Amino acid sequence: MATRSTIMDTNSFRPEVAHHLSPATRALTERRKILGPAYRLFYRDPIHLVRGQGAHLYDADGAEYLDVYNNVASVGHANPRVVEAVTRQMSTLNTHTRYLHEAVLDYSADLLSTMPAELDRLMLLCTGSEANDLAVRVAQVATGRQGIIISAEAYHGNTALVSQLSPALGTAQGLAPWVRLVPEPDPRRIGGEELGAWFARQVAAQIADLEAAGHGVAALLVDSIFSSDGVFPDPAGFLAPAVDLVHDAGGVVISDEVQPGFGRTGAEFWGFARHGVVPDLVTTGKPMGNGIPVSGLAARHETLAPFAENLPYFNTFGGNPVSVAAAQAVLDVIREDGLQLRADRVGSALLADLRALGAGDDRIGQVRGSGLYLGLEIVDPDDGAPSRTLALDLVEELRARRVLTSVCGGGGNVLKLRPPLVFDDVDAARLLEELTAALAVLR
């Protein structure tokens, strides 16, 4: 029997328990059947949102919520500079990249300027799924091999190709025969071994298995903060030995920066930079346009060339001027408003406060994170085992207190705290206050 998806089903509304909903909410959930059964809603009591501003959301009744989950609106919901840039460009021209347009070229150069010089080409798409799909194709052509190594609870998208690289979708979604998994880099797994050496050893075993199966290794595809695995960012630098190993084996490294990129980790603009590595391919998505569909594949020219020089690529909406206007505004706001520094400062203080809270509560396990990407582990107080039930009860109690978040990790027991980058000290204090109160209620 197929297991439920950790990223889609763990914190989701189940129609069979709709009897407790208000008549208006129940009516909307009934109407959603027109979308088909694959869709999911958050929370046992779904929220009807109608407006957002900064790190705050508002429902149909005017109630305000603190958003501690939505990294898509990276520079805040309804950011006025993004709205203005999109409106201005939409009123002028929107077309595709088979015509010349300076804004597309200006943005591409600007984005690449934030990355190592070796990454000197950019292809624009609409979604992170598309970017990862293209990256895998590029890697396989560049190396002449098929094998891809990913982490055990990875999520890299929902195209036909990358859904086979996304075990977080659940066992109903099969993995490709040329995919191999490595465990999440949890320091508790490794005994006295150094984490970088341990993780490289896991990767080496899968390289050997791929080679024995005749696939060879094309790429290590990794989200540099291991967000779906439960948020494992530290120690900074532990990825470097595995990256060297993959390169020595003739493979390339794809850094999926959809979630840890654009200053979210605070210390660096890109998650991979915390590890002191230069990937061959970098993918971006959701936060790039603050909700406007735009994504990117940054590449070393020598890695991209075998694919791009032989197979034309065209994406009708990828890199259109309106989406690029949004992306440029996002980049400008992050820099000019100091949002990376804010993520570092606010996130570091919040991490310390959450760890202090955990020191006095045996239901909190590890608290992990970097910048404004934090994972709060919820465990059984009797034996320290992951407690999905308690984690979901906590998520629901926070929702009742108008603080929105969700869970991740193979055990579905890690609260994923990744608010918009405009999240400030007042927001962090509110989160801590409501979390403390929610834990007291559940005690």
TrEMBL record:
Pfam families documented for this protein: Aminotran_3 (PF00202)
Keyword Transferase: yes
Domain of life the protein comes from: Bacteria
Keyword annotations of the record: Aminotransferase, Pyridoxal phosphate, Transferase
PANTHER family from the UniProt entry: ALANINE--GLYOXYLATE AMINOTRANSFERASE 2-LIKE (PTHR45688:SF13), PTHR45688
Protein family membership: Belongs to the class-III pyridoxal-phosphate-dependent aminotransferase family.
Protein name, entry field: 4-aminobutyrate aminotransferase
CDD domains: OAT_like
A molecular function GO annotation: pyridoxal phosphate binding
